[in-house]
Amino acid sequence: MDSGDRDIIPTASPPAAAARRRVSLVIPVFNSEATLHLLHRQLVDWAWSPVHDFEIIFVDDASTDGSLAVLREIERHAANVVVVEHPRNRGQSWAVVTGILAAQCQIVVTLDDDLQHHPGEIPHLLAALEARIPRRW
């Protein structure tokens, strides 16, 4: 596929973009080949926002199934996706820390890879955060 086929989250014009908050979504992954496309699709479906721009960071924790291949495919076709790979299994906590260290945004939200928590809940979390934190960040 060429870059025109990518799942790209639209960006605002330059003046509006300055007011937008940037959010890193960190998702540790271990043997979740079967759910990764669905998870990514759900993220893309809700992630466009007039207020936030998103990057999605998947951290593969040495999966033994085809998870890493699926993540690399998603990364090739989505401009806002980053895949970080652990060469050996370090556990969920280390995968989260790795993702946070790779994050380029001031706001970091973590999700599990198993769809236990629906990505559609993130806007509610961000709205609550927005209401509590001064505009200067």
Q: Your description of this structure?
A:
With 137 residues, the protein is α/β, with parallel strands linked by helices. Helices cover 36% and strands 21% of the residues. It has 5 helices and 4 strands. The chain has a 4-stranded parallel β-sheet with strand order 3-2-1-4, sandwiched between helices. Helix 3 (67-77) links the parallel strand 2 and strand 3 (81-86). The chain starts with 13 loop residues before the first helix and ends in a 5-residue tail after the last helix.
The DSSP helix count reads 5
What is the averaged pLDDT score? Answer: 84
Binned strand content: 15-25%
| Tertiary shape | globular
Strand order of the largest sheet: 3-2-1-4
**Strand-and-helix sequence, N→C?**
HEHEHEHEH
Helix vs. strand class: alpha/beta
Query: Could you name the ranges where pLDDT drops below 50 across 5 or more consecutive residues?
Result: 1-15
Total strand count, please? 4
Measured as a percent range, the helix fraction is 25-40%
Distance between the termini: 37 Å
Q: Note the main sheet.
A: 4 strands, parallel
Rg for CA atoms: 15 Å
Properties at a glance:
137 residues; alpha/beta; 4-stranded parallel sheet; 5 helices; disordered N terminus
Provide a compact summary of the structure.
The protein has 137 residues and is an alpha/beta fold. 36% of the residues lie in helices and 21% in strands. The chain is built from five helices and four strands.
